[in-house]
Design a protein that fits this description.
By secondary structure, this protein is an alpha+beta fold. It contains twelve helices and eight strands.
Length: 389
């Protein structure tokens, strides 16, 4: 690679890193405990499901819904979710209106006894704050899209860092760290740790960018596939809650349409994942991979009959697969530990890059050592060359 080409890649690496470093540090720091969010929630949850003999029959979904609504009779049901790790725990979300996002309440009901086990608060606490900072910085969709841009800059920084490191690696043994000065030591550590974590950084960075598009992807699905599935109901007034068919019947009808799948959640009429006239019953697979994928069955909320059922489009499936991969949710606790270690190393890489840039600014009026520049960049001495982040 020519010195001129190296300078261009150095420029890309430098500025893409500098623009996103502070935000990426925030994402890595908040993401570290979020890797273990399932374990933390299980250890700190304020409710407990009773130990009953195996094979105890399950109560009907209508009974579970009645138990939750008895706690908040003025609220309407929005979602019914089955805990993947604890199938006997059914969480029912209720709100002032079907699509309301404020003033919502959550009730956990034992699926066998229809007794309320607890009322968790998912919109407060340390984990909620960390999640909001990580997802949108409390800025909603604009915050998500902004972090998506930062994620794309991070991916550009990683790729350009690999390109810049290639000639350097050809002149020095892999993973060697020079110790003749503090700056060189951190410079080599920055390069070595960056190249060791490059594959993980690209995966997490790319899946993070995809996740920031979730709201847009869901809205597009609503106006395309969902609109096609519910076209015969267009223009009809919303169905009043008192005229809805049995929830048990809706689940039974969906089960016949989704063979080999288990119930993941139900979206009630008028919510984000349904229409004003349907129960949207979502099934999931039973393997580690297919359990992340969903398929909806739209059940007419008045008659209890199936309206339509289709596989979700590729962009929604990609989103569903990228979300758990982003936090290492595919391989259990061992993979999460690996994810946490790599996350911590990335924090060191980002911090060292920022340190090296600040160090360079302090010495900008000091004459560079041309031999050191050539050695670092794998090129002839270049007064403008450095691939410090």
């Amino acid at each position: 690679m020519t010195p001129h080409a190296i300078r261009r890649w150095v420029w890309v690496h430098k500025w893409s890193s500098l623009v996103c470093t502070v935000f990426l540090l925030s994402l890595c720091i908040t993401g570290l405990p979020l890797i273990f969010h399932h374990e933390i929630e299980d250890a700190s949850r304020p409710w407990k499901i009773a130990d009953l003999p195996e094979g105890t029959p399950r109560a009907g979904y209508d009974r579970l819904l009645q138990a939750a609504q008895a706690r908040y009779p003025r609220l309407v049901p929005q979602y019914l979710l089955i805990d993947e790790d604890e199938p006997n725990a059914v969480t029912i979300g209720l709100g002032p209106a079907p699509a309301a996002q404020e003033g919502n309440r959550y009730v956990v009901v034992d699926a066998r006894t229809a007794r309320v086990a607890g009322e968790p608060d998912y919109e407060s606490g340390v984990m909620y704050v960390l999640l909001k900072l990580h997802v949108d910085m409390f800025a909603g969709l604009p915050g998500k899209l902004f972090l998506g841009v930062m994620g794309m800059l991070f991916v550009a920084a990683v790729i350009s860092g690999v390109v810049v490191y290639a000639p350097y690696m050809g002149r020095q043994a892999f993973a060697s760290v020079r110790t003749r000065s503090t700056r060189l030591r951190w410079f080599d550590l920055h390069n070595v740790l960056g190249i060791v974590t490059v594959a993980w950084a690209l995966v997490v960075g790319a899946t993070g960018v995809v996740n920031t598009w979730a709201d847009l992807a869901i809205r597009y699905w609503q106006v395309t596939q969902m609109a096609e599935m519910t076209a015969p109901y267009r223009g009809q007034p919303p169905l009043p809650p008192g005229e809805r068919a049995s929830l048990d019947g809706a689940v039974a009808g969906a089960a016949r349409t989704l063979p080999g799948m288990e119930l993941a959640f139900i979206a009630f009429p008028g919510t984000l994942f349904s229409s004003p006239h349907h129960y949207a019953v979502f099934g999931r697979g039973t393997t580690p991979l297919t359990s992340k994928l969903l398929k909806p069955a739209l059940i007419d909320a008045k008659t209890g009959e199936l309206t339509d059922s289709r596989d979700l489009p590729w962009y929604i499936s990609g989103l569903l697969l990228s979300q758990p991969l982003h936090f290492g949710d595919y391989g259990g606790l061992p993979l999460k530990i690996v994810w946490a270690i790599l996350d911590f190393i990335t924090i060191v890489v980002l911090g060292s890059g920022l340190y090296l840039w600040l160090f360079k600014r302090k010495r900008k009026n000091v004459r560079r050592d041309p031999n050191d520049t050539a050695e670092r960049c794998g090129a002839k001495p270049d007064p403008g060359g450095s691939h410090v982040s």
